[in-house]
Design a protein that fits this description.
Layout: E1 3-5, E2 11-16, H1 21-30, E3 38-41, H2 47-58, E4 62-66, E5 69-73, H3 85-89, H4 95-104, E6 106-110, H5 123-131, E7 134-139, E8 142-147, E9 153-157, H6 163-172, E10 178-182, H7 188-200, E11 203-207, E12 210-214, E13 223-226, H8 231-244, E14 245-250, H9 258-266, E15 270-273, E16 277-281, E17 285-286, E18 289-291, H10 303-309, E19 313-314, E20 316-320, H11 329-336, E21 341-344, E22 347-351, E23 360-362, H12 366-378, E24 383-386, H13 389-392, H14 398-405, E25 409-411
Parallel strand pairs: 2-14, 3-13, 9-10, 17-19, 18-20, 23-24
Antiparallel strand pairs: 1-24, 1-25, 3-5, 4-5, 6-8, 7-8, 10-12, 11-12, 14-16, 15-16, 20-22, 21-22
Bound molecules: uridine-diphosphate-N-acetylglucosamine.
Length: 412
């Protein structure tokens, strides 16, 4: 899908934050681990969610998705090899591996895909599965994983800090009597998944970054859960306000955005917030210095968004990506649009400006696409963004929401 962004938009209004993409994906997969039906509220209507729902339906689950509420009934769930295209399309399909190991002690799946922001291996997940007593084979992009010995207990240390591997290992071990996982990474989205599993009846405790699990008996009951707000979406709209007008983002957890908000405040941008709301108004700030890191460090998912904001800086801003290998495309786009931007490896130095010569852009991942939209909205000419579908993977109804704020966007 391509979109056209015309110049001269005046942005003003409110946005209600959607449910977090990186929480809802594992939550949907984890719905298979419930004894009873699951009702999820605040589910974002994004294409990654639709793809996961297709996988759930392929597995004979009933899925009803109305508005932002979803009801999942896994009564008829049965084992099937996950050799369907949806698994290749989204990175988060890897959560089905852990869930399948908990339920069936085996899984056959097309290797998970996702945004092309580096090699994105799943070696940390695979090592943890081995530590839990599973063996795996990879052949022709198909991962086959199965149980070789009966492990009743496990104590393992994840080989790298990884959001996905931490949650996946929690899932995979749920058949054991007891386990302990060290060196996990539980960002707010991971904590939401742990709370959900606890609601399902799994006896999990997180203390000093160590997860412990004791075998538990599950009840048959309807489990209701509300997905936490999407901190990346909230910040994207707040930055739009800082760049182009005035935006209030509602229903946010600002405590999950402590560092990005502090950076903006310290730089002097017109941004204020309560526990659940952010107000952002067009302004210019002092130079910012950002180095992405694991939570509570600066999120890699906001790096390109802040890269665009750097044009509203008085002076030079420095941004460094340390989590993914290939997430610097936006700085080449800034350069092409006439911004003084020096790129060295995974570092960029951007000089503030108010002259953006719009181009035709092409999104190459979800966050890059969202950053391009911001760039196109501040540009001085009409811009086309191709491959905008990437953005729909993670931003609920973004075209209509930006239009409602005053953005001049047309779907081509
Ligand atoms: C998740 C999110 C993604 C977000 C990222 C960082 C999902 C579906 N995706 O991705 O939106 O950008 O967290 O917040 O929730 N790594 C390995 N081996 C592994 C696993 C990870 O080397 O087995 C590397 C990755 O390539 C990356 C780093 O570890 O360099 C962090 O990755 P991880 O935290 O696992 O992120 P993802 O699960 O890929």
């Amino acid at each position: 899908m391509d979109i056209k962004v015309s110049s001269g938009s005046i942005i003003k209004g409110n946005v209600v934050c959607s449910g977090a993409k990186n929480a809802v994906i594992p939550l949907l997969c984890a719905s298979l681990l419930s004894k009873g039906k699951v009702m999820l509220r605040n589910v974002p209507r994004i294409s990654d969610v639709f793809d996961i729902c297709n996988i759930l339906r392929y597995l004979d689950c009933k899925v009803i998705f109305k508005g932002h509420t979803m009801l999942i009934d896994n009564t008829n769930l049965k084992y099937k090899p996950l050799l369907i295209e949806e698994c290749k399309k989204i990175r988060g399909s890897y959560y089905f591996i852990g869930v399948f190991l908990a339920l069936f002690s085996k899984c056959e799946i097309l290797l998970p895909g996702g945004c092309k922001i580096g090699s994105r291996p799943i070696d940390v997940h695979l090592q943890a599965f081995e530590d839990l007593g599973f063996k795996y084979i990879i052949e022709d992009d198909i991962l086959t994983i199965f149980k070789t010995k009966v492990n009743e207990e496990a104590s393992l240390v994840l080989t790298k800090k990884s959001v996905g591997a931490s949650i996946n290992t929690i899932f995979a071990g749920l058949r054991l009597n007891h386990y302990e996982i060290k060196n996990g990474l539980y960002e707010p989205e991971g904590l939401d998944v742990i709370h959900f599993l606890q609601k399902l009846g799994y006896r999990l405790t997180l203390k000093d970054e160590v997860i412990q699990y004791e075998k538990s008996k599950l009840d048959f009951k309807l489990i209701k859960h509300t997905v936490i707000p999407d901190r990346m979406e909230a910040m994207t709209y707040a930055v739009l306000g800082l760049l182009k007008g005035e935006v209030t983002v509602k229903r946010v957890n600002t405590k999950d955005l402590e560092l990005p908000l502090r950076i903006l405040k310290d730089a002097g941008y017109q941004i204020s917030y309560t526990e659940s709301e952010i107000y952002a108004k067009k302004s210019y700030g002092k130079e910012i210095e950002i180095k992405t890191d694991i939570y509570p460090g600066f999120p890699t998912d906001l790096q390109s968004i802040f890269g665009v904001l750097a044009i509203n800086t008085i002076g030079k801003s420095r941004i460094e990506e340390t989590v993914f290998e290939k997430r610097m495309q936006i700085y080449y786009d800034l350069k092409d649009s006439g911004v003084d931007c020096k790129i060295t490896g995974n570092k960029a130095e951007i000089t503030g400006t108010n002259k953006i010569h719009s181009k035709n852009y092409s999104a190459c991942d979800l966050r890059h696409g969202a950053a391009l939209l911001l760039l196109a909205l501040v540009g001085d000419e009409e811009a086309i963004i191709s491959n905008f579908d990437y953005v729909l993977r993670g931003y609920d109804d973004i075209v209509n929401r930006v239009k409602a704020l005053g953005g001049k966007i047309t779907i081509l």
